[in-house]
Design a protein that fits this description.
The structure is a single chain. The chain has 372 residues and is α/β, with parallel strands linked by helices. It folds into two domains: 2-8 and 252-371, Alpha-Beta Complex (Aspartate Aminotransferase, domain 1); 14-247, Type I PLP-dependent aspartate aminotransferase-like (Major domain) (Aspartate Aminotransferase, domain 2, 3-Layer(aba) Sandwich), CATH 3.40.640.10. Helix content is 39%, strand content 15%. The strands form three sheets. A seven-stranded mixed β-sheet has the order 2-8-7-6-5-3-4, sandwiched between helices. The longest helix is centred in the last third of the chain and has 35 residues, at 236-270.
C-alpha cells in the first residue's frame, strides 16, 4: 500500500524503533524507582528530553512529557484558565484549530470564560483585523496552530503573539504539524504543544513546553512524577523513541524539506485540474488538500484501496460531518465532500506519488463519467 496520510501519523523511523527496543526488553525499569534499573531508565528519559527540547534552546523554559498533544493542549488551556487573574476571562482562538483546542475552549466557555473564535479567509489565514479587535485587556489567552493539520496553512504566529502580549495575554501554539518541519516561532510563544508520532516517532507521547514564569496546576493528580506536576509513570521506551525521532528531524530538516517540495511538485502536476484548498504560499508543502467537482471523496477512498489517504482529520473520521476547516474557508458541504487530503514525507518516493496520483485521477474520472 502507498501511504499518503502523513498528517494523521507518520511511519516510525528505524532509528526511533532501535532507540525504543532496549526499554521494551532488558532495560524495563520504572524511571521513578531508586535502584539501578530505575536510574538507567530515568537517565534515558532525560537524554530524550534534551533531544526533544533541543529546538527550544536559547529560550528560557522547560519541556514536560505528556501522553500526546491533546493532553498538552488541555493542560495549557485549562491550566491557564484555572490560574486566570481577576478580570481576565477572554479566550481567543481560530476557527480552523484542531478539535483538542476548539473543544477545550468550548468547554471553558461553559465555565464562565468568554470565547472568541476568529474567522479565516478563503486562503485559511486568520483575519488579523478581527484578531486585533478581539484581543484586549480582558483577554487571558490566545491559541493558534502553527501548521494546520487539514490544509497545511501556516498562520502568522508572530503577529498574533504581538497582539496577545501587547494586551497582557498568554500565547499558546499547537505546533504539532510544524515541529521538525518548519522553524518554530519560539520567541512568540508562552506554551507549545508537540507530538512524537507526527515526526516519525511513537504514538502515545507528546510534550508541552512552558516558558519560564508560566506555572500551571496539575491536570492529572497522583504522584507528580513529571516535573512535580504531571502524574503517571513515564514510558522510557516512548521517551527514547521521541528523542531519537526529534534528533533525526533536526538533522534532516533541510533534506526532508527538499524531498517534500519535489513530492509536492509531482503530485500537483498530476492533479493540476484539481482546486487547491487553502493558501499555496503560506503553507507546508507536505500537505496537499484538493477538491474536484463531481467527486465523492469517501467513495474515492474506498475505491482506491491501494493508497492510504483521507478526507480530513483522522480525529473526525466517521462523523459524517463535513470538515470544520473546509467549512471555515468558505466551502459548501458539496465542495468539502469533494475534497481529499494527501500527506507525504520522508519515506514517500516519487514513484509512489506517480502511481498514487494515477490511481486517484483515474478513479475520480470514472466517478465524474458515471455522474454525468
Amino acid at each position: 500500500m502507498i501511504y499518503l496520510d502523513y498528517q494523521a501519523t507518520t511511519p516510525l523511523a528505524p532509528e526511533a524503533r532501535a532507540a525504543m527496543r532496549p526499554f521494551l526488553e532488558e532495560s524495563f525499569g520504572n524511571p521513578h524507582s531508586p535502584h539501578r534499573l530505575g536510574r538507567e531508565a530515568a537517565a534515558a528519559v532525560e537524554v530524550a528530553r534534551a533531544r526533544v527540547a533541543a529546538p527550544f534552546a536559547g529560550e528560557p523554559g522547560r519541556l514536560l512529557f505528556t501522553s500526546g498533544a491533546t493532553e498538552a493542549a488541555n493542560w495549557a488551556l485549562k491550566g491557564a484558565a484555572l490560574t486566570a487573574p481577576e478580570g481576565r476571562r477572554g479566550i481567543v482562538t481560530i476557527a480552523t484549530e484542531h478539535a483538542c483546542v476548539l473543544d477545550t475552549v468550548g468547554w471553558l466557555g461553559t465555565q464562565g470564560f468568554d470565547v472568541t473564535v476568529l474567522p479565516v479567509g478563503a486562503d485559511g489565514v486568520v483575519d488579523l483585523d478581527r484578531a486585533a479587535a478581539a484581543i484586549d485587556g480582558r483577554t487571558l489567552l490566545v491559541a493558534a496552530m502553527l501548521v494546520n493539520n487539514e490544509i497545511g496553512v501556516i498562520q502568522p504566529i508572530e503577529t498574533l503573539s504581538r497582539l496577545a502580549h501587547a494586551a497582557g495575554a498568554l500565547f499558546f501554539c499547537d505546533a504539532v504539524q510544524g515541529y521538525g518541519r518548519v522553524p518554530l516561532p519560539l520567541a512568540a510563544c508562552d506554551m507549545i504543544a508537540i507530538s512524537a508520532h507526527k515526526i516519525y516517532g511513537p504514538k502515545g507521547i507528546g510534550a508541552l513546553w512552558l516558558r519560564d514564569g508560566i506555572a500551571l496546576p496539575p491536570l492529572l493528580h497522583g504522584g507528580g512524577q513529571e516535573g512535580g506536576i504531571r502524574s503517571g509513570t513515564l514510558s522510557p521506551a516512548l521517551c527514547a523513541g521521541f528523542g531519537a525521532a526529534a534528533a533525526l528531524a533536526a538533522e534532516r530538516m533541510e533534506a526532508d524539506t527538499v524531498h517534500v517540495e519535489a513530492l509536492w511538485g509531482g503530485a500537483r502536476a498530476m492533479l493540476k485540474d484539481w482546486t487547491l484548498n487553502g493558501s499555496a504560499e503560506a503553507r507546508w508543502h507536505g500537505n496537499l488538500n484538493l477538491r474536484h467537482d463531481g467527486v465523492d471523496a469517501a467513495r474515492l477512498i474506498s475505491e482506491v484501496r491501494q493508497v492510504a489517504f483521507s478526507a480530513g482529520s483522522a480525529c473526525a473520521s466517521g462523523s459524517g460531518r463535513p470538515s470544520h476547516v473546509l467549512r471555515a474557508i468558505g466551502l459548501s458541504d458539496a465542495q468539502a465532500r469533494a475534497s481529499i487530503r494527501l500527506g507525504f514525507g520522508r519515506y514517500t518516493t516519487l514513484k509512489e506519488i506517480e502511481e498514487a496520483m494515477t490511481m486517484i485521477r483515474d478513479a475520480a474520472g470514472r466517478q465524474r463519467i458515471w455522474a454525468a
